[in-house]
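Query form — protein 3-methyladenine DNA glycosylase

QUESTION: What is the three-dimensional structure of this chain?
INPUT:
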Amino acid sequence: MTILGSPTLARAEWEPLATAHAADADALTAGHRERKGRGERHAIEDFLFEYYSTRPSHLRRWHPGPGVVLEDAPEHAAWRFYRTSAGRTEVDVVAFLEARGATVDHIERLLRATASRPARLGCFGLHEWAMAYRAGDGIRHPLPLRLGQDGTDAVVESHPIACSHFDAFRFFTPDARPLNTLQPTRESQVALEQPGCLHATMDLYKWASKLAPAVPSSLQLEAFALALEVRRVDMQASPYDVSSYGLDPIAVETPHGKREYADRQRDFATRGAKLRARIVASIETLRELADA
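ANSWER: The structure tokens for 3-methyladenine DNA glycosylase are given below.
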């Protein structure tokens, strides 16, 4: 049942919002889509479409979020987790929670736990170095190592490795895993995740996507745009030579590079905290509407 007082948008009101959202999404994914059409890969940006499962066609879909009623919206009526009555379409919050309740619970628990901790800024992006440690021909990206294999290994061996993110740690080489000060697991993710981690900030895009259509699409697109920025810095600070993509390295093996990385990390943590809070607020709204 539609909640009394829910905002209602006529097609003339919501359609321009949907059109503008699709245009913004298309602009952000244009490079990926053009490369895919030519059969080309981008070692940095394509990660957001290969590691995360949301396709550009889904990213450009406009969802108003729960509690907003759309008039004359047959497009939305055909999508999963929407309901229509008397020509008025809205997110079916009850059906969404029935189908995705466990996922919603996990996301909320993880994001609240992450937000409760201070940002730790001392990892210096060395997770990517640990993924290439003693890798030989098994490096993960088709790019040359900026310092070569011996230089890469020396950086790993001369720095403390302190990765708290399981989905980064699981790609460490076997020789690098024992060097990490933590041994993250999927089960310890809620206990270990912290807001200074670049991968935790990138994952905000994953969580917003998993919550669609129960979060506004504007939030999902903002999370994607931030993830794209973070991914570029992630690879600039990696052991790989990214100059072929027009990017300068962040030489984290040097004092200057460490300062630059920490500054970028601090900025991303601040911006990510705002998105994280908005995702949690959307979950709260979702639950309130389902209980009403």
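ADDITIONAL NOTE: The chain has twelve helices and four strands.
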